[in-house]
TrEMBL record:
This is Uncharacterized protein. Residues 1-30 form the signal peptide. Keywords: Membrane, Signal, Transmembrane, Transmembrane helix. The lineage of its organism: Eukaryota, Viridiplantae, Streptophyta, Embryophyta, Tracheophyta. GO terms for biological process: chlorophyll biosynthetic process. The gene is LOC100782310. The chain crosses the membrane at residues 40-60.
């Protein structure tokens, strides 16, 4: 029946609808069109975008603070190093410079042939590093490490581990380098003798800096600075 009414009286329906529209208060019409601006009815994507922007801003600020802290630490390190008269490095292009002796004297008398081979491997590895051939240096230091472990010589073991770490740093293999620099610290703790620990802290800090892990880098720079000031 409703279909018959629509078909027979279309003009009547049109007039009736217009009467209803114009008779409705303007405020009522406005309320039906007014947007709900409540936060709780905010579109989900917009809410996520706002949260993401806030978190991104906080992370950027944290990153900036970390960079500033590391930069201040490097300035402090350079200042401390300038006061040091003895600076030597297996990896002079890095932002830290290891200190201390550990030089192999050319006139050193070595009776044990295995010890002589060990010293030779360390010298070769160091020369390869100086000639920008870290892959060759790694092989020499690796052999030296095995010899030092067989001879139970912790001092030379640390030198070999430090050389391995420096070789890997030169090749951009920072996580592997950290393992060998950490080995230096582990040997020092095991033997109760901390030669080479200062440069190990600096090297590990450099590796974390290269990896972009600035918070960890800052922790090791703090240890490096503390030892520089103590030395």
């Amino acid at each position: 029946m409703m279909e018959d009414i629509h078909q027979r009286f279309p003009s009547l329906i049109f007039v009736a609808s217009n009467i209803l529209m114009f008779s409705m208060p303007n405020t009522a019409l406005a309320e039906t069109c007014e947007a709900d601006t409540s936060v709780f009815n905010m579109p989900i994507l917009l809410a996520v975008a706002l949260i993401g922007a806030t978190v991104g801003g906080l992370l950027a600020r944290q990153r900036r603070n970390e960079l500033q802290r590391v930069n201040e630490q490097l300035i402090q390190i350079n200042s401390a190093l300038r006061k040091q008269a003895k600076i030597e490095s297996y990896a002079p292009s890095l932002s830290y410079a290891p200190i201390g002796g550990g030089r192999i004297l050319d006139n050193e008398i070595i009776v044990n042939p295995k010890k002589q081979e060990l010293i030779s491997k360390l010298k070769n590895g160091k020369n390869f590093l100086r000639n920008q051939r870290p892959d060759k240096a790694f092989t020499e230091f690796k052999n030296a490490l095995e010899l030092a472990q067989n001879l139970k010589d912790p001092i030379e073991e640390k030198k070999a581990a430090r050389g391995l770490g420096a070789s890997l740093q030169r090749q951009g293999k920072y996580r592997d380098a950290i393992k060998y620099h950490s080995m230096v610290l582990a040997i020092s703790e095991r033997e109760g003798e901390d030669s080479g620990s200062t440069e190990a802290f600096g090297a590990i800090a450099d590796c974390y800096t290269e990896l972009g892990e600035l918070e960890k880098a800052g922790q090791f720079y703090d240890k490096y600075i503390a030892r520089l000031e103590k030395d």
